[in-house]
Write a structure and sequence with these properties.
The complex is a heterodimer of chains A (262) and B (302). Chain A is built from six helices and 17 strands. With 262 residues, chain A is of the alpha/beta class. Chain A folds into two domains: 10-91, Translation factors (Elongation Factor Tu (Ef-tu), domain 3), CATH 2.40.30.10; 101-261, Rossmann fold (3-Layer(aba) Sandwich). In chain A, helix 4 packs parallel to helix 5. The two termini of chain A are 32 Å apart. By secondary structure, chain B is an alpha/beta fold. Chain B has a domain at 21-26 and 41-242: TIM Barrel, CATH 3.20.20.70. Chain B has helices spanning 28-36, 78-88, 104-116, 136-139, 142-155, 171-180, 219-232, 246-255, 264-269, 273-287, and strands at 6-8, 11-13, 17-19, 41-43, 60-63, 66-69, 95-99, 121-125, 160-163, 185-188, 192-195, 197-198, 203-204, 210-214, 237-240, 257-262. An eight-stranded parallel beta barrel of chain B has the order 3-4-7-8-9-10-15-16, surrounded by seven helices. In chain B, helix 3 (104-116) links the parallel strand 7 and strand 8 (121-125). In chain B, helix 8 packs across helix 10 (273-287). The longest helix of chain B has 15 residues, at 273-287. Classes of the chains: A alpha/beta (262), B alpha/beta (302).
Chain lengths: 262, 302
Protein backbone atom coordinates (compact mmCIF):
# COMPACT_ATOMS: atom_id res chain seq x y z
CA UNK A 1 0.00 0.00 0.00
CA UNK A 2 1.53 3.28 -1.09
CA UNK A 3 -0.02 6.14 0.75
CA UNK A 4 -0.75 9.47 -0.74
CA UNK A 5 1.62 12.34 -0.30
CA UNK A 6 0.66 15.94 -0.54
CA UNK A 7 -2.79 17.34 -0.07
CA UNK A 8 -3.14 21.09 -0.37
CA UNK A 9 -5.78 23.31 1.08
CA UNK A 10 -8.05 25.10 -1.34
CA UNK A 11 -10.39 28.01 -0.78
CA UNK A 12 -13.79 27.41 -2.33
CA UNK A 13 -16.88 29.61 -2.68
CA UNK A 14 -20.36 28.42 -1.75
CA UNK A 15 -22.28 28.21 -5.04
CA UNK A 16 -25.56 26.91 -3.67
CA UNK A 17 -27.26 26.31 -0.36
CA UNK A 18 -30.17 23.91 0.13
CA UNK A 19 -32.15 23.28 3.30
CA UNK A 20 -32.59 19.51 3.27
CA UNK A 21 -34.46 19.09 6.54
CA UNK A 22 -34.76 20.61 10.01
CA UNK A 23 -31.29 22.05 10.78
CA UNK A 24 -29.66 20.23 7.86
CA UNK A 25 -28.10 22.20 5.00
CA UNK A 26 -26.27 21.14 1.84
CA UNK A 27 -23.53 23.47 0.61
CA UNK A 28 -22.22 23.02 -2.95
CA UNK A 29 -18.96 24.46 -4.25
CA UNK A 30 -16.77 24.07 -7.34
CA UNK A 31 -13.68 21.99 -6.62
CA UNK A 32 -12.23 19.56 -9.12
CA UNK A 33 -10.25 17.32 -6.75
CA UNK A 34 -10.69 13.63 -7.58
CA UNK A 35 -12.87 11.91 -5.01
CA UNK A 36 -14.54 8.56 -4.56
CA UNK A 37 -17.81 7.67 -2.79
CA UNK A 38 -17.51 7.56 0.99
CA UNK A 39 -14.47 9.83 1.24
CA UNK A 40 -14.43 12.90 3.46
CA UNK A 41 -12.77 16.30 3.51
CA UNK A 42 -11.49 18.61 6.25
CA UNK A 43 -13.41 21.88 6.20
CA UNK A 44 -11.81 24.94 7.76
CA UNK A 45 -13.92 27.92 8.71
CA UNK A 46 -11.18 30.44 9.57
CA UNK A 47 -11.56 31.74 13.10
CA UNK A 48 -13.98 28.97 14.06
CA UNK A 49 -12.71 25.41 13.64
CA UNK A 50 -11.79 22.72 11.14
CA UNK A 51 -13.96 19.61 10.99
CA UNK A 52 -14.26 16.42 8.91
CA UNK A 53 -17.30 16.24 6.60
CA UNK A 54 -18.41 13.47 4.26
CA UNK A 55 -18.80 14.47 0.63
CA UNK A 56 -22.48 14.26 -0.28
CA UNK A 57 -21.81 15.22 -3.91
CA UNK A 58 -18.81 14.22 -6.03
CA UNK A 59 -17.86 15.56 -9.46
CA UNK A 60 -16.64 19.09 -10.08
CA UNK A 61 -19.39 20.72 -8.05
CA UNK A 62 -18.91 18.97 -4.76
CA UNK A 63 -21.12 19.18 -1.74
CA UNK A 64 -21.31 18.60 1.98
CA UNK A 65 -24.44 18.09 4.00
CA UNK A 66 -24.21 19.56 7.47
CA UNK A 67 -26.35 19.09 10.55
CA UNK A 68 -26.14 21.89 13.07
CA UNK A 69 -24.76 20.27 16.24
CA UNK A 70 -21.82 22.48 17.34
CA UNK A 71 -19.79 25.63 16.70
CA UNK A 72 -18.34 24.59 13.35
CA UNK A 73 -21.55 23.07 12.01
CA UNK A 74 -23.50 26.12 13.20
CA UNK A 75 -21.13 28.35 11.24
CA UNK A 76 -21.46 26.09 8.20
CA UNK A 77 -25.25 25.82 8.28
CA UNK A 78 -25.53 29.62 8.50
CA UNK A 79 -23.34 30.13 5.42
CA UNK A 80 -24.82 31.75 2.35
CA UNK A 81 -23.99 31.66 -1.36
CA UNK A 82 -20.75 33.59 -1.92
CA UNK A 83 -19.27 32.73 1.50
CA UNK A 84 -15.95 30.94 1.46
CA UNK A 85 -14.47 27.93 3.22
CA UNK A 86 -11.10 26.21 2.95
CA UNK A 87 -11.02 22.51 2.24
CA UNK A 88 -8.34 19.81 2.16
CA UNK A 89 -8.58 16.20 1.11
CA UNK A 90 -10.39 14.14 0.04
CA UNK A 91 -9.26 11.60 2.58
CA UNK A 92 -9.90 8.01 3.51
CA UNK A 93 -11.12 4.82 1.96
CA UNK A 94 -14.67 4.81 0.68
CA UNK A 95 -17.17 2.18 -0.45
CA UNK A 96 -16.28 -0.53 -2.93
CA UNK A 97 -19.52 -1.67 -4.45
CA UNK A 98 -19.68 -4.91 -6.40
CA UNK A 99 -22.34 -5.57 -9.01
CA UNK A 100 -25.50 -7.19 -7.72
CA UNK A 101 -28.41 -6.24 -5.54
CA UNK A 102 -27.46 -3.69 -2.90
CA UNK A 103 -29.30 -2.56 0.21
CA UNK A 104 -28.34 0.91 1.40
CA UNK A 105 -29.22 1.80 4.98
CA UNK A 106 -28.81 5.40 6.12
CA UNK A 107 -29.70 6.86 9.50
CA UNK A 108 -29.67 10.54 10.40
CA UNK A 109 -27.25 12.37 8.09
CA UNK A 110 -25.70 9.04 7.07
CA UNK A 111 -27.36 9.20 3.66
CA UNK A 112 -24.98 12.07 2.80
CA UNK A 113 -22.06 9.66 2.54
CA UNK A 114 -24.07 6.90 0.86
CA UNK A 115 -25.71 8.78 -2.00
CA UNK A 116 -22.52 9.32 -4.01
CA UNK A 117 -21.96 5.55 -3.83
CA UNK A 118 -25.48 4.87 -5.09
CA UNK A 119 -25.02 7.35 -7.90
CA UNK A 120 -21.71 5.86 -9.05
CA UNK A 121 -23.05 2.32 -9.28
CA UNK A 122 -24.19 1.18 -12.69
CA UNK A 123 -26.13 -1.96 -13.66
CA UNK A 124 -26.97 -2.68 -10.07
CA UNK A 125 -30.31 -2.89 -8.40
CA UNK A 126 -30.30 -0.63 -5.36
CA UNK A 127 -32.82 -0.65 -2.55
CA UNK A 128 -32.71 1.97 0.17
CA UNK A 129 -33.83 2.20 3.78
CA UNK A 130 -33.73 5.71 5.24
CA UNK A 131 -34.16 6.15 8.96
CA UNK A 132 -35.04 9.37 10.75
CA UNK A 133 -36.34 10.32 14.16
CA UNK A 134 -39.39 11.94 12.57
CA UNK A 135 -40.71 13.14 9.25
CA UNK A 136 -39.17 16.63 9.66
CA UNK A 137 -35.67 15.19 9.95
CA UNK A 138 -36.04 12.82 7.01
CA UNK A 139 -33.26 13.32 4.47
CA UNK A 140 -32.73 12.65 0.77
CA UNK A 141 -35.85 10.58 0.05
CA UNK A 142 -36.40 12.14 -3.38
CA UNK A 143 -32.71 12.02 -4.35
CA UNK A 144 -32.56 8.34 -3.39
CA UNK A 145 -35.45 7.52 -5.69
CA UNK A 146 -33.34 8.54 -8.69
CA UNK A 147 -30.99 5.61 -8.17
CA UNK A 148 -33.08 3.18 -6.12
CA UNK A 149 -35.85 0.98 -7.43
CA UNK A 150 -37.22 0.69 -3.92
CA UNK A 151 -36.93 3.45 -1.31
CA UNK A 152 -38.47 2.91 2.09
CA UNK A 153 -38.54 5.19 5.08
CA UNK A 154 -38.63 4.56 8.80
CA UNK A 155 -39.33 7.05 11.56
CA UNK A 156 -38.87 6.45 15.26
CA UNK A 157 -42.17 8.16 16.04
CA UNK A 158 -44.09 6.70 13.12
CA UNK A 159 -44.78 10.12 11.58
CA UNK A 160 -43.87 8.69 8.18
CA UNK A 161 -43.33 5.25 6.70
CA UNK A 162 -42.33 2.26 8.80
CA UNK A 163 -42.80 2.87 12.53
CA UNK A 164 -39.44 1.89 14.02
CA UNK A 165 -35.76 2.24 13.30
CA UNK A 166 -33.76 1.73 10.12
CA UNK A 167 -32.38 -1.63 11.24
CA UNK A 168 -35.86 -3.02 11.88
CA UNK A 169 -36.87 -1.79 8.44
CA UNK A 170 -33.76 -3.35 6.89
CA UNK A 171 -34.64 -6.65 8.55
CA UNK A 172 -38.07 -6.55 6.96
CA UNK A 173 -36.56 -5.73 3.54
CA UNK A 174 -34.05 -8.58 3.89
CA UNK A 175 -36.89 -11.02 4.52
CA UNK A 176 -38.44 -9.98 1.20
CA UNK A 177 -35.34 -9.69 -0.99
CA UNK A 178 -31.97 -11.42 -1.17
CA UNK A 179 -29.19 -8.81 -1.13
CA UNK A 180 -25.55 -9.28 -2.18
CA UNK A 181 -24.21 -6.37 -0.16
CA UNK A 182 -25.37 -3.94 2.50
CA UNK A 183 -23.94 -0.41 2.79
CA UNK A 184 -24.56 1.48 6.01
CA UNK A 185 -23.90 4.89 7.48
CA UNK A 186 -25.45 6.49 10.54
CA UNK A 187 -25.26 6.49 14.31
CA UNK A 188 -22.89 3.76 15.53
CA UNK A 189 -25.52 1.98 17.61
CA UNK A 190 -27.56 1.61 14.43
CA UNK A 191 -24.52 0.32 12.54
CA UNK A 192 -23.71 -2.10 15.33
CA UNK A 193 -27.12 -3.74 15.08
CA UNK A 194 -27.15 -3.54 11.29
CA UNK A 195 -23.79 -5.33 11.23
CA UNK A 196 -25.19 -8.01 13.55
CA UNK A 197 -28.20 -8.41 11.26
CA UNK A 198 -25.94 -8.77 8.22
CA UNK A 199 -23.86 -11.42 10.00
CA UNK A 200 -27.01 -13.36 10.93
CA UNK A 201 -28.16 -13.27 7.32
CA UNK A 202 -24.74 -13.95 5.86
CA UNK A 203 -24.70 -10.73 3.80
CA UNK A 204 -21.38 -8.93 3.29
CA UNK A 205 -21.48 -5.31 4.37
CA UNK A 206 -19.53 -2.06 4.47
CA UNK A 207 -20.10 0.67 7.00
CA UNK A 208 -18.80 4.18 7.43
CA UNK A 209 -17.66 5.06 10.96
CA UNK A 210 -17.14 8.32 12.75
CA UNK A 211 -14.65 9.20 15.48
CA UNK A 212 -13.40 12.41 17.03
CA UNK A 213 -10.75 13.50 14.55
CA UNK A 214 -7.95 16.00 14.91
CA UNK A 215 -5.43 15.98 12.05
CA UNK A 216 -7.41 14.04 9.42
CA UNK A 217 -4.16 13.12 7.70
CA UNK A 218 -3.30 9.77 9.27
CA UNK A 219 -0.77 11.03 11.79
CA UNK A 220 -2.10 11.86 15.21
CA UNK A 221 -4.10 8.74 15.99
CA UNK A 222 -6.98 10.61 17.63
CA UNK A 223 -9.50 8.77 15.43
CA UNK A 224 -8.07 5.29 16.00
CA UNK A 225 -10.50 2.43 16.52
CA UNK A 226 -8.75 -0.81 17.47
CA UNK A 227 -5.56 0.70 16.07
CA UNK A 228 -7.12 1.47 12.68
CA UNK A 229 -7.24 5.10 11.62
CA UNK A 230 -10.78 6.10 10.67
CA UNK A 231 -9.22 8.87 8.54
CA UNK A 232 -6.99 6.50 6.57
CA UNK A 233 -7.92 2.81 6.82
CA UNK A 234 -11.56 4.02 7.11
CA UNK A 235 -13.96 5.69 7.30
CA UNK A 236 -15.57 2.74 5.47
CA UNK A 237 -14.81 -0.67 6.95
CA UNK A 238 -15.89 -4.08 5.72
CA UNK A 239 -18.09 -6.36 7.78
CA UNK A 240 -15.12 -8.64 8.43
CA UNK A 241 -13.01 -5.76 9.70
CA UNK A 242 -15.84 -4.60 11.94
CA UNK A 243 -16.21 -8.12 13.28
CA UNK A 244 -12.61 -8.09 14.50
CA UNK A 245 -12.98 -4.73 16.25
CA UNK A 246 -13.47 -4.75 19.99
CA UNK A 247 -14.35 -1.05 20.11
CA UNK A 248 -16.99 -1.01 17.35
CA UNK A 249 -20.35 -0.18 18.89
CA UNK A 250 -18.83 -0.14 22.38
CA UNK A 251 -16.28 2.61 22.80
CA UNK A 252 -15.22 5.92 21.40
CA UNK A 253 -12.67 8.48 22.60
CA UNK A 254 -12.85 12.06 23.79
CA UNK A 255 -10.69 14.99 22.65
CA UNK A 256 -7.94 13.93 25.07
CA UNK A 257 -7.90 10.33 23.86
CA UNK A 258 -9.73 9.06 26.96
CA UNK A 259 -12.09 6.10 26.62
CA UNK A 260 -15.84 6.73 26.55
CA UNK A 261 -18.64 4.19 26.44
CA UNK A 262 -20.81 4.50 23.37
CA UNK B 1 22.65 -13.79 7.95
CA UNK B 2 22.52 -10.11 8.83
CA UNK B 3 21.56 -8.87 12.26
CA UNK B 4 19.53 -5.74 12.76
CA UNK B 5 19.52 -6.15 16.53
CA UNK B 6 20.58 -3.17 18.58
CA UNK B 7 20.91 -2.59 22.30
CA UNK B 8 20.04 0.95 23.17
CA UNK B 9 21.15 1.96 26.67
CA UNK B 10 20.28 -1.55 27.80
CA UNK B 11 17.02 -1.79 25.87
CA UNK B 12 17.17 -4.73 23.46
CA UNK B 13 15.52 -4.16 20.10
CA UNK B 14 15.04 -6.56 17.18
CA UNK B 15 15.73 -3.70 14.78
CA UNK B 16 16.73 -0.04 15.05
CA UNK B 17 13.42 1.48 13.88
CA UNK B 18 11.24 3.05 16.56
CA UNK B 19 7.89 4.78 16.42
CA UNK B 20 8.49 8.47 17.24
CA UNK B 21 6.42 10.13 19.93
CA UNK B 22 3.28 11.97 18.89
CA UNK B 23 2.27 9.69 16.04
CA UNK B 24 -0.23 6.88 16.58
CA UNK B 25 0.89 6.53 20.18
CA UNK B 26 -2.18 7.64 22.07
CA UNK B 27 -3.96 4.29 22.25
CA UNK B 28 -2.88 0.74 22.95
CA UNK B 29 -4.47 -0.39 19.71
CA UNK B 30 -2.58 2.07 17.55
CA UNK B 31 0.72 1.16 19.25
CA UNK B 32 0.00 -2.49 18.48
CA UNK B 33 -0.63 -1.58 14.84
CA UNK B 34 2.80 0.09 14.62
CA UNK B 35 4.47 -3.00 16.09
CA UNK B 36 2.70 -5.02 13.41
CA UNK B 37 4.22 -2.64 10.88
CA UNK B 38 7.62 -3.81 12.06
CA UNK B 39 8.78 -1.23 14.59
CA UNK B 40 11.57 -2.42 16.88
CA UNK B 41 10.34 -0.22 19.73
CA UNK B 42 7.42 2.10 20.34
CA UNK B 43 7.48 5.53 21.91
CA UNK B 44 4.13 6.61 23.30
CA UNK B 45 2.44 9.94 22.80
CA UNK B 46 3.76 12.40 25.38
CA UNK B 47 1.67 11.99 28.50
CA UNK B 48 1.10 14.63 31.17
CA UNK B 49 -0.38 14.64 34.66
CA UNK B 50 -3.96 15.39 33.65
CA UNK B 51 -6.14 14.92 30.54
CA UNK B 52 -5.48 17.61 27.95
CA UNK B 53 -7.40 18.39 24.75
CA UNK B 54 -4.56 20.10 22.93
CA UNK B 55 -5.09 22.92 20.49
CA UNK B 56 -8.22 23.51 18.51
CA UNK B 57 -8.19 22.59 14.80
CA UNK B 58 -6.59 23.26 12.37
CA UNK B 59 -3.74 21.33 13.93
CA UNK B 60 -2.13 20.00 10.75
CA UNK B 61 -0.85 21.39 7.48
CA UNK B 62 0.26 18.97 4.76
CA UNK B 63 3.22 20.10 2.71
CA UNK B 64 5.05 18.63 -0.22
CA UNK B 65 8.05 17.65 1.89
CA UNK B 66 6.49 17.14 5.27
CA UNK B 67 3.94 18.37 7.75
CA UNK B 68 3.46 21.25 10.05
CA UNK B 69 1.53 20.48 13.21
CA UNK B 70 0.43 22.08 16.42
CA UNK B 71 -1.47 19.35 18.19
CA UNK B 72 -0.72 20.94 21.57
CA UNK B 73 0.06 17.74 23.48
CA UNK B 74 -3.42 16.20 23.65
CA UNK B 75 -3.37 13.14 25.91
CA UNK B 76 -5.67 11.30 28.31
CA UNK B 77 -3.46 11.90 31.36
CA UNK B 78 -1.13 9.49 33.13
CA UNK B 79 -3.88 7.86 35.19
CA UNK B 80 -5.97 6.77 32.20
CA UNK B 81 -2.91 5.86 30.15
CA UNK B 82 -2.31 2.73 32.21
CA UNK B 83 -4.98 0.89 30.21
CA UNK B 84 -3.26 1.81 26.95
CA UNK B 85 0.16 0.67 28.23
CA UNK B 86 -1.35 -2.61 29.36
CA UNK B 87 -2.72 -3.20 25.88
CA UNK B 88 0.43 -2.02 24.09
CA UNK B 89 2.53 -4.49 26.10
CA UNK B 90 0.92 -7.29 24.05
CA UNK B 91 3.02 -6.10 21.12
CA UNK B 92 6.06 -7.83 22.57
CA UNK B 93 8.39 -4.97 21.66
CA UNK B 94 9.88 -2.46 24.11
CA UNK B 95 7.60 0.46 24.97
CA UNK B 96 9.21 3.80 25.75
CA UNK B 97 6.94 6.06 27.79
CA UNK B 98 7.12 9.68 26.69
CA UNK B 99 6.22 12.29 29.31
CA UNK B 100 6.03 16.07 29.58
CA UNK B 101 5.88 18.23 32.67
CA UNK B 102 6.38 21.79 33.81
CA UNK B 103 8.79 20.99 36.63
CA UNK B 104 11.45 18.44 37.52
CA UNK B 105 9.13 16.97 40.16
CA UNK B 106 6.32 16.51 37.67
CA UNK B 107 8.65 14.79 35.18
CA UNK B 108 9.86 12.48 37.95
CA UNK B 109 6.36 11.49 39.05
CA UNK B 110 5.26 10.81 35.46
CA UNK B 111 8.42 8.83 34.69
CA UNK B 112 7.89 6.65 37.74
CA UNK B 113 4.31 5.93 36.66
CA UNK B 114 5.55 4.93 33.22
CA UNK B 115 8.00 2.57 34.87
CA UNK B 116 5.15 1.07 36.91
CA UNK B 117 3.17 0.63 33.70
CA UNK B 118 5.98 -1.50 32.28
CA UNK B 119 7.83 1.02 30.11
CA UNK B 120 11.34 -0.24 29.33
CA UNK B 121 12.60 3.33 29.11
CA UNK B 122 11.22 6.82 29.55
CA UNK B 123 11.62 9.65 27.05
CA UNK B 124 11.46 13.21 28.36
CA UNK B 125 9.77 15.65 26.01
CA UNK B 126 12.00 18.70 26.38
CA UNK B 127 11.36 19.88 22.87
CA UNK B 128 7.71 20.32 21.81
CA UNK B 129 7.70 23.74 20.09
CA UNK B 130 3.99 24.51 20.39
CA UNK B 131 2.75 24.03 23.96
CA UNK B 132 3.06 26.93 26.34
CA UNK B 133 4.99 26.18 29.52
CA UNK B 134 6.21 22.80 28.32
CA UNK B 135 8.68 21.09 26.03
CA UNK B 136 11.04 23.43 24.25
CA UNK B 137 10.41 26.24 26.73
CA UNK B 138 12.34 24.19 29.30
CA UNK B 139 14.55 22.28 26.91
CA UNK B 140 16.70 25.20 25.71
CA UNK B 141 18.23 25.85 29.15
CA UNK B 142 21.09 23.47 30.06
CA UNK B 143 20.64 23.99 33.82
CA UNK B 144 16.90 23.35 33.74
CA UNK B 145 17.42 20.21 31.64
CA UNK B 146 20.17 18.91 33.96
CA UNK B 147 17.95 19.46 36.96
CA UNK B 148 15.02 17.58 35.42
CA UNK B 149 17.23 14.65 34.47
CA UNK B 150 18.79 14.38 37.94
CA UNK B 151 15.33 14.30 39.48
CA UNK B 152 14.04 11.70 37.02
CA UNK B 153 17.14 9.51 37.36
CA UNK B 154 16.56 9.37 41.10
CA UNK B 155 12.94 8.35 40.58
CA UNK B 156 13.38 5.45 38.12
CA UNK B 157 15.68 2.53 37.39
CA UNK B 158 14.80 2.25 33.68
CA UNK B 159 16.93 4.17 31.13
CA UNK B 160 16.06 7.82 30.60
CA UNK B 161 16.13 9.41 27.14
CA UNK B 162 16.02 13.18 26.59
CA UNK B 163 14.37 14.37 23.37
CA UNK B 164 15.92 17.70 22.44
CA UNK B 165 14.96 20.57 20.21
CA UNK B 166 16.93 21.91 17.25
CA UNK B 167 15.37 25.33 17.85
CA UNK B 168 18.40 26.63 19.74
CA UNK B 169 22.04 27.40 19.13
CA UNK B 170 22.76 25.62 22.40
CA UNK B 171 21.84 22.07 21.40
CA UNK B 172 25.29 20.74 22.24
CA UNK B 173 25.39 22.61 25.56
CA UNK B 174 22.00 21.20 26.49
CA UNK B 175 23.02 17.70 25.45
CA UNK B 176 26.28 17.87 27.43
CA UNK B 177 24.37 19.10 30.47
CA UNK B 178 21.96 16.18 30.06
CA UNK B 179 24.86 13.74 29.77
CA UNK B 180 26.49 15.24 32.84
CA UNK B 181 23.25 14.80 34.77
CA UNK B 182 23.20 11.11 33.93
CA UNK B 183 20.80 10.79 30.99
CA UNK B 184 21.16 7.46 29.15
CA UNK B 185 20.54 8.61 25.56
CA UNK B 186 19.71 11.70 23.54
CA UNK B 187 16.88 11.76 21.01
CA UNK B 188 17.29 14.37 18.28
CA UNK B 189 15.52 16.15 16.76
CA UNK B 190 11.99 17.32 17.54
CA UNK B 191 10.17 19.48 14.99
CA UNK B 192 11.40 22.88 13.83
CA UNK B 193 9.26 25.78 14.98
CA UNK B 194 7.42 27.01 11.92
CA UNK B 195 4.39 28.84 10.53
CA UNK B 196 2.07 28.49 7.56
CA UNK B 197 -0.01 31.40 6.32
CA UNK B 198 -2.93 30.82 4.00
CA UNK B 199 -2.91 33.67 1.50
CA UNK B 200 -6.63 33.31 0.79
CA UNK B 201 -7.57 33.40 4.46
CA UNK B 202 -4.76 35.90 5.14
CA UNK B 203 -3.96 34.32 8.47
CA UNK B 204 -1.88 31.52 9.96
CA UNK B 205 -3.54 28.16 9.32
CA UNK B 206 -2.73 26.52 12.65
CA UNK B 207 -5.02 27.65 15.46
CA UNK B 208 -1.91 27.98 17.62
CA UNK B 209 -0.33 30.09 14.85
CA UNK B 210 3.05 28.41 15.44
CA UNK B 211 3.69 24.76 14.83
CA UNK B 212 6.46 22.27 14.27
CA UNK B 213 7.81 21.30 10.86
CA UNK B 214 8.59 17.63 10.29
CA UNK B 215 9.22 15.16 7.48
CA UNK B 216 11.89 15.11 4.76
CA UNK B 217 12.01 18.93 4.89
CA UNK B 218 13.92 18.78 8.20
CA UNK B 219 16.10 15.74 7.52
CA UNK B 220 19.23 17.72 6.71
CA UNK B 221 18.97 19.58 9.99
CA UNK B 222 18.41 16.36 11.92
CA UNK B 223 21.35 14.56 10.36
CA UNK B 224 23.61 17.52 11.09
CA UNK B 225 22.46 17.61 14.75
CA UNK B 226 23.05 13.87 15.18
CA UNK B 227 26.49 14.18 13.58
CA UNK B 228 27.43 16.95 16.02
CA UNK B 229 25.97 15.14 19.02
CA UNK B 230 27.88 11.96 18.14
CA UNK B 231 31.14 13.91 18.22
CA UNK B 232 30.30 15.74 21.44
CA UNK B 233 28.85 12.89 23.56
CA UNK B 234 29.72 9.45 24.86
CA UNK B 235 26.12 8.30 25.36
CA UNK B 236 24.06 6.92 22.47
CA UNK B 237 22.10 9.17 20.14
CA UNK B 238 18.73 8.27 18.60
CA UNK B 239 18.11 10.00 15.28
CA UNK B 240 14.73 11.36 14.21
CA UNK B 241 13.57 13.79 11.55
CA UNK B 242 12.31 12.98 8.07
CA UNK B 243 13.20 9.30 7.97
CA UNK B 244 10.92 7.37 5.64
CA UNK B 245 13.07 4.89 3.73
CA UNK B 246 16.19 2.79 4.28
CA UNK B 247 18.49 5.42 2.80
CA UNK B 248 17.35 8.14 5.16
CA UNK B 249 17.53 5.73 8.12
CA UNK B 250 21.11 4.77 7.21
CA UNK B 251 22.02 8.41 6.76
CA UNK B 252 21.19 9.01 10.42
CA UNK B 253 22.96 5.85 11.55
CA UNK B 254 26.09 6.73 9.64
CA UNK B 255 25.94 10.17 11.28
CA UNK B 256 26.06 8.34 14.60
CA UNK B 257 22.54 7.27 15.56
CA UNK B 258 22.28 3.85 17.25
CA UNK B 259 18.57 3.76 16.47
CA UNK B 260 16.11 5.89 14.51
CA UNK B 261 12.59 7.09 15.13
CA UNK B 262 9.91 7.51 12.49
CA UNK B 263 6.87 9.76 12.83
CA UNK B 264 5.84 11.66 9.71
CA UNK B 265 6.91 8.63 7.67
CA UNK B 266 3.97 6.71 9.15
CA UNK B 267 1.62 9.29 7.68
CA UNK B 268 3.38 9.46 4.32
CA UNK B 269 4.26 5.79 3.85
CA UNK B 270 1.91 3.93 6.21
CA UNK B 271 2.57 1.69 9.23
CA UNK B 272 4.61 -0.75 7.12
CA UNK B 273 7.33 1.93 6.82
CA UNK B 274 9.24 0.20 9.66
CA UNK B 275 9.35 -3.19 7.95
CA UNK B 276 10.18 -1.60 4.60
CA UNK B 277 13.13 0.26 6.10
CA UNK B 278 14.44 -2.91 7.78
CA UNK B 279 14.18 -4.88 4.54
CA UNK B 280 16.07 -2.16 2.70
CA UNK B 281 18.81 -1.99 5.33
CA UNK B 282 19.21 -5.80 5.30
CA UNK B 283 19.56 -5.72 1.55
CA UNK B 284 22.18 -2.98 1.76
CA UNK B 285 24.09 -4.96 4.38
CA UNK B 286 24.00 -8.14 2.30
CA UNK B 287 25.28 -6.34 -0.76
CA UNK B 288 28.07 -4.71 1.23
CA UNK B 289 29.06 -7.71 3.32
CA UNK B 290 28.04 -6.23 6.64
CA UNK B 291 26.80 -8.72 9.23
CA UNK B 292 25.97 -6.45 12.13
CA UNK B 293 24.16 -3.16 11.79
CA UNK B 294 26.12 -1.62 14.63
CA UNK B 295 29.16 -1.68 12.32
CA UNK B 296 27.51 1.15 10.36
CA UNK B 297 26.92 3.50 13.29
CA UNK B 298 28.98 6.64 12.94
CA UNK B 299 30.95 5.52 9.88
CA UNK B 300 30.50 8.93 8.27
CA UNK B 301 32.92 10.39 10.81
CA UNK B 302 36.67 10.62 10.12
Amino acid sequence: MTERFMVTQTMVTIASRTEEADGVVTLRFDWDAPASPGQFIMVWIPGVDEVPMSLSYLGDRKGITVKNIGDATKALTSMQVGDRIIVRGPYGRGYHVPPGRILVVGGGTGMASLLPAMERISATDVHTAIGARNEKELLFEERSKKTSSNVRVSTDDGSKGFHGNAVQLAKEMMSETKYDMVLGCGPEKMLFFLHKLCLENGIPCQMSLERYMKCGGGLCGSCAIDGKRVCREGPVFSGDELKSMKEFGKQRRDECGGRLKL
Amino acid sequence: MTSLKVVLAGVEMENPTMLASGIMGETGGSLLAMAKGGAGALVTKSIGSVPRQGHKNPTLVELEYGYMNAMGLPNPGIEAFGDEMYEAAKAGVPIVGSVFGSSAEEFAILARRMQEYGAEAVELNLSCPHAKGYGMEMGVDPDVVANIIKEVKQAVVIPVFAKLTPNTHKLIDVARAAEGAGVDAIVAINTLKAMKIDVDARQPVLSNRYGGLSGPAVRGVGVRCVYELYEALKIPVIGVGGIEDWRSALEYMMAGAVAVQIGSGVGRRGPQVFGDICAGISDYMNKNGIRDITQLVGVAHD
